[in-house]
Design goal:
Helix content: 25-40%
Strand content: 15-25%
Radius of gyration: 19 Å
Number of helices: 9
Order of helices and strands: HEEEHEEHEEHHHHHEEEH
Largest sheet: 6 strands, antiparallel
CATH topology: Beta-lactamase
CATH superfamily: DD-peptidase/beta-lactamase superfamily
C-alpha cells in the first residue's frame, strides 16, 4: 500500500488503543541560554535567523508543567478521559514540556496537516497548481457519521480549484475534499516531510495508534519556522489553519479574538470509545506558543471540554507571567 493509499483510507479507518506514559519538561533555560533571533513582519510565521548568546529574559516562561500535570491527573481520576497527552512549546525561545508525550493515538484528521504541507510544497515549483481545477468524484461520503461534521463540504461532481479544496479540507475538515487532494499528491514529497521530522512514514503495516503529541506538534513548528515550506507557503498554510471552524477545543480556552492556527482530529470507535485531538499555535500577543492535546475516552463530545480546560489553564499561565513581567 502506498502512502497515498494509506492517507486516502486511514482517516476514517484508524482505530485502536495505545499504551505508554511519560513526563518530560524543558522550561526555564539557564541564565546563559542562547536567545533565538527571528525575522519579524509576517502574520503567522517567524523564521529563525540565528541564535545569540544572551541573558535569560523574563519573557522566557517559568515552568508551570506541574500545575498542568495536576489538571491532567484530576481529569483522568474523574473519568473525563482515559488518556490525555499534552505538548507545550514557547515559540519565542523554545522551552517546552510534555505530559504522557509518548502515548500513541490514531491521528484521524490531524493527517490533513502533512497533506496540506505536501500540496503547498508542490505549489512552490508549480505556479499554477493552486488554481488548477479538480473535480469531486467521491462515490462514498466520507463525512457521514462524523461527530463534528463539516459546516461546509464539497459537492459531488462539482469542480474546485486546489486552493478551494485546501480550504474545505482544513477550515471545515472535509474528508471528501481531502480524498480529491490526496490523488494529486507526489508520494515523494509527503514522505519527505515525515522523514525530515523523524516521524515514521505510515503504510499498510503501521499500527492504528502510531502518532504522538510531539509528532503532530512538529508539523506546526516547521510551518512557524518556515523550514520545510518557503515563507510564502508557510504563511498560506497557517492562514488556512487559522480559519478552522472547530471552536470547542483549543479555541474554547482562549479569549475571543485571539488567533489560533490549529487542526483537530476525531475518531469514534464501536462501543462508544472515542479519540479527540486538537493541535496548533495560539497567537498570544507578541508571545505565541504551540499547544497539542490528544485524548481518548468514552465521553464523546466531553473530550472537547477536557481539551478546552487544558487550553484555558495554559493560556492563563502564559497570560499571568507576561502581565507580571510587563508590570515590572
Amino acid at each position: 500500500m502506498t502512502l497515498r493509499s494509506f492517507l486516502t483510507h486511514s482517516l476514517l479507518a484508524l482505530l485502536g488503543i495505545g499504551m505508554g506514559y511519560g513526563l518530560r519538561a524543558q522550561l526555564a533555560p539557564p541564565a546563559a541560554s542562547p536567545t533565538e533571533v527571528r525575522e519579524t513582519g509576517h502574520t503567522f510565521t517567524s523564521p529563525l535567523l540565528e541564535c545569540d548568546q544572551g541573558e535569560y529574559a523574563f519573557h522566557e516562561l517559568r515552568p508551570f508543567v506541574g500545575r498542568v500535570q495536576a489538571t491532567v491527573d484530576r481529569q483522568l481520576a474523574q473519568g473525563r478521559a482515559t488518556h490525555i497527552s499534552v505538548y507545550f512549546r514557547d515559540l519565542n525561545n523554545g522551552p517546552w514540556f510534555g505530559i504522557h508525550e509518548d502515548e500513541r493515538f490514531s491521528p484521524a484528521s490531524l493527517l490533513k496537516v502533512p497533506i496540506l504541507i505536501s500540496v503547498l510544497k508542490q505549489a512552490e515549483s508549480d505556479a499554477g497548481l493552486l488554481q488548477r481545477p479538480l473535480t469531486v468524484q467521491t462515490l462514498v461520503d466520507d463525512n457521514a457519521g462524523a461527530l463534528y461534521p463539516p459546516e461546509q463540504m464539497v459537492e459531488q461532481g462539482k469542480t474546485y480549484t486546489t486552493d478551494e479544496l485546501l480550504r474545505f479540507m482544513i477550515a471545515h475538515s472535509d474528508n471528501n475534499a481531502k480524498n480529491v487532494l490526496v490523488l494529486s499528491i507526489n508520494d515523494a514529497i509527503i514522505q519527505a516531510i515525515f522523514t525530515e521530522l523523524g516521524i515514521r512514514v505510515p503504510d499498510s503495516p503501521t499500527p492504528t495508534d502510531f502518532t504522538t503529541v510531539k509528532d503532530n506538534a512538529s508539523f506546526f513548528r516547521v510551518l512557524y519556522n518556515a523550514t520545510f515550506l518557503n515563507r510564502e507557503m508557510s504563511e498560506r498554510a497557517l492562514a488556512y489553519l487559522a480559519a478552522s471552524q472547530f471552536t470547542v477545543g483549543l479555541v474554547a480556552g482562549v479569549p475571543k479574538g485571539v488567533v489560533v492556527a490549529h487542526k483537530f482530529g476525531q475518531r469514534t470507535l464501536p462501543g462508544g470509545l472515542s479519540q479527540l485531538h486538537d493541535c496548533g499555535i495560539v497567537y498570544y500577543p507578541e508571545h505565541p506558543y504551540l499547544l497539542c492535546v490528544m485524548t481518548r475516552g468514552t465521553t464523546g463530545k466531553g473530550l472537547a471540554t477536557v481539551i478546552g480546560d487544558i487550553s484555558r489553564q495554559v493560556y492563563g499561565e502564559v497570560d499571568a507571567q507576561i502581565r507580571a513581567g510587563r508590570a515590572k
